[in-house]
């Protein structure tokens, strides 16, 4: 009884903290929009292709989702999380640099300039689809400055809910690990970026061996810094199209917000690689954008997203069939659900070949 009461207390404390955090990022979101509006040189206007949620709808959905996130604490899936954003000084420095960068990124957006990163020496050996200024952000995904600003940028864009959207992966992972010795398992986070989910996962399962794989050396350096207090983490610089990992070596494979940034053929190749390294009976959890038809009233917002941000493969992704991608890779789709602006897709690798 005491444990249940403690869980309820922790849940409400977590919920209150997340609301406060979301309120902060909502204010920051409005501030950046106002600064951008004052810069002028707006991009060409567009007409929404479908229904769009209003501010009240978004706020209502955000609150409901944060309450759902707090249920993870009540159910014992994860404890209340520690500081997600670093010290106040670190956060202030990142926010200041993000605001200072707004005129540059805004000019890039108005001019549709997505090739700035092609001049950087870091592009050597990287695939063409990766060498772009995704979101029109300075440095693309290739520079240390971009890696330092990335998390505050996406949290500002999604009103402080990005970490909570990733945290939805802990539900199926908890079910999979229950009753097992975490020390004897292996988890892989594909396109781990700055390592935020690895930090969340290790907070819950400190003895679980985790590998983070990414194509950006700069983002891996940020991930190393972010997870420096955690043990048994291996960070690998590699292309997810050809992972330097053994067949059937991973019990759990996760991937967040990658598929919508891949061309369709690459998307399928990465899924095949995930299936190759996953053990029979293993778990795969993908979290990415909502797709068309997933949430009433949101299709217009999804179609507008690549008009505001450079996302060349996004429109194809929101019409793609993720369950079919899994099936084509030898995996079995299990279930999916919406998580605010994202969708969680869970699958398994059959214990026996589907061809038998």
Question: Topology of this structure?
Answer:
Elements: H1 2-39, H2 55-74, H3 88-110, H4 144-157, H5 162-167, H6 170-177, E1 187-190, H7 196-204, E2 210-214, H8 217-226, E3 233-237, E4 250-256, H9 264-277, E5 278-289, H10 299-308, H11 314-317, H12 322-328, E6 332-339, E7 342-348
Parallel strand pairs: 1-2, 1-4, 2-3, 4-5
Antiparallel strand pairs: 5-7, 6-7
Helix pairs in contact: 1-2, 1-3, 3-4, 4-8
Structural commentary:
This protein has 356 residues and is α/β, with parallel strands linked by helices. It has a domain at 181-348: 3-Layer(aba) Sandwich (Rossmann fold), CATH 3.40.50. It has helices at 2-39, 55-74, 88-110, 144-157, 162-167, 170-177, 196-204, 217-226, 264-277, 299-308, 314-317, 322-328; strands at 187-190, 210-214, 233-237, 250-256, 278-289, 332-339, 342-348. A seven-stranded mixed beta sheet has the order 3-2-1-4-5-7-6, with helices on both faces. α8 (217-226) links the parallel β2 and β3.
- What percentage of residues falls in helices of 4 or more residues? 40-55%
**DSSP strand (E) fraction?**
5-15%
Q: Give the spatial strand order of the biggest sheet.
A: 3-2-1-4-5-7-6
CATH topology of one domain: Rossmann fold
Number of helices: 12
| Name of the top-level CATH class of one domain | Alpha Beta
H and E order: HHHHHHEHEHEEHEHHHEE
Outline the biggest β-sheet: 7 strands, mixed
Class by alpha and beta content: alpha/beta
Total E-strand runs:
7
Instruction: Name the poorly predicted regions.
Output: none
Instruction: Tell me the span between the first and last alpha carbons.
Output: 49 Å
The oligomeric status of these chains comes to: single chain
CATH second-level architecture of one domain = 3-Layer(aba) Sandwich
pLDDT averaged over residues = 92
Fourth-tier CATH superfamily name of one domain: Vaccinia Virus protein VP39
Q: Which geometry do the CA atoms define?
A: globular
Q: Please state the CA-atom Rg, rounded to the nearest Å.
A: 20 Å
